[in-house]
Design a protein that fits this description.
10 helices, two-stranded antiparallel sheet
């Protein structure tokens, strides 16, 4: 039988187990582990060969906890018009993790509030930690529906962080007033967008509340969310922000993708990609496209 517990619960246990499992040292009894042996067994949970061997020598499975493999899952959430297949790009960037794409159906934050927590919650329980990588509209839906219970760390690329402002900007572009929209409820614009009174009211009544350690990348020329808006949001949630000079909302060219990859690599090398932002991390850093990694 294989038992699982959350990383939050596991860390203090490891701290008390490891001193008693040092080679050459007599292992003291640890009766406080007993309650965890009553947890429900989980099928398909990964267990290393060293853990199996240790369980054979130690039926109580206490020393074996030292060897447990706490795998990490990376979930990619695409933007509007994107695809879960884009997750393939991130497999090489997170070689030590399982990487999957989320093929969601939600078109609104209230739909995401039902779909996203269910998807992430089911998978979070199977892994030691879960990392969110999200782009644009996918980032907005994730920010609107998830939290610390579902995500341990987040990398957001060109996230939409102020949907109310974006809707008001589109209303101004279409020449639509709030009074008109409140009466007609939905209005089709001449640039392919549908304005919704329900959507506007929802985002006003449900502002984003986000407490997950987060890293943000955006382009200097983002035409959906200005850098100033993203910077203000990053400051509110304590995230680090990197800006690509000359970049745009959609990171899709070879140069932009190289910059994105270098951004991720820089964070991992600096030790900022392990679930917490260092105190020395700059709130905002702007890098030229030709030199993304100072």
């Amino acid at each position: 039988e294989i038992y699982t517990l959350s990383l939050h619960d596991a860390l203090p246990i490891f701290g008390r187990i490891l001193p008693s499992c040092v080679p050459g040292r007599t292992r003291a009894p640890v009766p406080w582990v007993a309650p965890f042996r009553r947890l429900v067994p989980v099928r398909g949970c990964a267990m290393s060969a060293s853990l199996r061997a240790c369980q054979g020598r130690d039926p109580q499975g206490v020393c074996g906890l030292e060897f447990a493999e706490l795998r990490r899952l990376v979930v990619y959430v695409h933007g509007r018009g994107g695809s879960a297949k884009e997750a393939e790009h991130y497999r090489a960037l997170f070689p030590e993790s399982d990487v999957i794409g989320f093929d969601y159906r939600s078109q609104s934050p209230w739909e995401a509030h039902e779909e996203f927590p269910r998807f992430f919650g089911e998978r979070r329980g199977r892994y030691g930690s879960l990392v969110l990588v999200a782009h644009s509209m996918g980032a907005f839906l994730a920010l609107s529906s998830l939290g610390k219970r579902h995500v341990d760390e987040a990398y957001l690329v060109s996230p939409i962080v102020d949907m109310e402002k974006l809707i008001r900007d589109m209303m101004a572009r279409a020449g639509v007033t709030e009074e008109e929209l409140s009466k007609r409820l939905e209005i089709e614009t001449g640039f392919g967008e549908r304005l919704s009174w329900k959507y506007l009211c929802y985002v006003r009544d449900n502002p984003i509340r986000w407490g997950v350690p987060t890293h943000i990348l955006c382009g200097e020329g983002d035409d959906l969310t200005p850098v100033e808006t993203t910077s203000a949001f990053a400051g509110q949630i304590g995230a680090d922000l990197s800006v690509m000079r000359g970049g745009e909302h959609w990171f899709h060219t070879r140069e932009q993708l190289r910059f994105l990859d270098a951004w991720l690599g820089r964070l991992k090398r600096a030790g900022l990609g392990s679930g917490e932002c260092a105190a020395s991390c700059s709130t905002r850093s702007t890098f030229p496209s030709t030199h993304p990694c100072p």
